[in-house]
Amino acid sequence: MTEADFDTLAIRGGTERTHFSEHSEALFLTSSFVFDNAAQAAARFSGEEEGYVYARFSNPTVTMMQNRLAALEGGEACVATSSGMSAILSLVMGTMKAGEHVVATNGLFGASQQLLGGIMPKFGIETTFVPASDLDAFRAAVRPNTRLVFVETPSNPLTEIVDIAAVADIAHSAGALFAVDNCFCTPALQLPLALGADVVVHSATKYLDGQGRVLGGAVVGGKPVMEEVFKFLRTAGPCISPFNAWVILKGLETLRLRMEAQSANALALASWLEGQAGIRRVYYPGLESHPQHGLALSQQRCGGAIVSFEVEGGREAAWRVVDACRTMSITANLGDTRTTITHPASTTHGRLTAEARAAAGIGEGLIRIAVGLESVEDLKRDLMSGLQS
User: Fold this and answer.
1) Where N6-(pyridoxal phosphate)lysine occurs, residue numbers (predicted)?
2) Which DSSP letter does residue 305 get?
3) Which CATH architecture has domain 256-387?
4) What is the pLDDT of residues 35-75, one digit of tens each?
5) For residue 266, what are the CA distances in angstroms to 172, 231, 295, 307, 386?
6) DSSP state of 115
7) Domain 3-254, CATH class in plain words
8) Residue 238 preceded by cis peptide, ω within 30
């Protein structure tokens, strides 16, 4: 897909106009839809006739968002959900059953680890966690009952990179689905389906919206898998609201422009951080010092907009840097045009055990910055206040 193709799809993909011929996409705030007669109602509910039925699982605004995102990711279909976590839940519950097994990276977002490692075992689905860059560990973890391989690349917050094509081969050799959480890159920077993944998962709350306004999630992939995910959503109901879908639909229009600008800011900030006293290490795929820099740039257009770094002095020093910020927002959300800063060990990964945090490399001195669109010089001044105190 060329840059021009992407930009046109981001603005016009999936748009359907009503008889009013509105220019901007319409927002359908309705819980249900009216039928011409009882026979049509029966045909709609059974699926014999196409058309909208009930907003838990069918709404024109949601359809437009789904179709646009599917086009941008290069997928056949998309199922939109109420949040990123409900997207992962819908994927697992829609495609798996008790007695089956997941292989996942141990650097997953904290809530993703808790879902797969803490909640799904109650339903008979076990997960083995492996290092993101260890292909032998992926191979060793696969079992005869492995149904899903789930990774996040780049990872949150250490920006570890998974070799998507290589892990796709491992998953497919085992007869398993391969899903990639593409939250950090979005289709503007990375296309996992083109590299061999079967499914892409999003927290649309993040960069797809882009301004920290609404919650949303999405699962994108081939039609057979999406049908299974849709069956779960239709019955269980972790659906996105039409209003949230409309906001995300509009956010997609500026996705590439935002991602490229925020990534450029992130590279500048990461490069500067590497030269500052009191910083033990900077984690950013766009830096040559990143151990997977080459792999990252072979499957991403650039390094992305997330920068993490470890300060000397543990939690006390990290909190001092965070608390000194006056421009950056102290919040665990990311993907906003406003730069955000957080201490992962006590926020996004705070509910994990100390052992799980250690396995994921989440130390007490680690800070994560989701770089926005402000002046990089202002962001540097913000950080310098805490680093020098």
Assistant:
1) 206
2) S
3) Alpha-Beta Complex (3.90)
4) 999 999 999 999 999 999 999 999 999 999 999 999 999 99
5) 35, 40, 18, 6, 19
6) I
7) alpha beta
8) no
